[in-house]
Amino acid sequence: MQLSNLDGVLLIDKAPGMTSHDVVAMVRRALNTKKVGHCGTLDPLATGLLIVVIGRGTKIQDLLMSEDKEYVGTMTLGAMTDSQDADGQVTETRPVPELAPKQIEAAFAKFDGDFYQMPPMVSAIKQGGVPLYKLARQGKTVEREPRFVHVFAHEIKQIALPEIEFRVVCSKGFYVRTYAFDIGNELGCGAHLKTLRRTKSGKFNLERSVTVDDLRTKTAAELTEKIISLPEVSRMRGA
């Protein structure tokens, strides 16, 4: 693939502490191209799969963004934060009872299939053209519209109270930190999301991803070899 004609998908394993926009900026610099976008925001706390579209790949951005996603994460029971994750300020603490695995499984099971999820105030959703997180920083809370979401599968990977490690396969627009918050409420002690890693999005996973360090150290030619061409993307998706 010639550097002058970059079209396709680059899979990035996002590092913690950076925004999805930061990754896009790094790709632009590394490949010396402006036409770059991403498919599905990852919060700064989160790591894992970020699909970056380049050149004519930006035309299928919405299509790729709409596909199901898989995450693994850890929630911490007994503490709630204003952002619903570990990056926020603790707003309330409660004692964590001795919970049996069956009680925890029952709480997770309540959030299987179709349901409505209330987006958090600390989110990129816009109201009146202003992202909610900017309003939240001003101490404001506004009415939000619940979102219709779907959980296709979940797995409780480990219980080591107050922490629970889990896996969830979910629809577009799903907030995993709100999932943790809601399960914590269901268990009566509250919770926040401690860690999060996206492992799949549609037909893509981390196997062919490049790291943030690769973006810093590899040449444009080396990175170009990692770009998945649009015909291959089409074949992978069965289109």
Overview of this protein structure:
This protein has about 240 residues and is an alpha+beta fold. It has two domains: about 10-65 and about 205-235, Pseudouridine synthase, CATH 3.30.2350; about 70-200, Pseudouridine synthase, CATH 3.30.2350. The protein has helices at about 20-30, 60-65, 100-110, 130-135, 175-185, 210-215, 220-225, 230-235, and strands at about 10-15, 35-40, 45-55, 70-75, 80, 90-95, 115, 125, 130, 145-160, 165-170, 190-200, 205, 210. Strands 1, 2, 3, 4, 7, 10, 11, 12, 13 and 14 form a ten-stranded mixed beta sheet that branches.
Give descriptors for this structure:
single chain; 239 residues; alpha+beta; Pseudouridine synthase; 2 domains; ten-stranded mixed β-sheet; two-stranded antiparallel ribbon; 8 helices; 14 strands; 26% helix; 34% strand
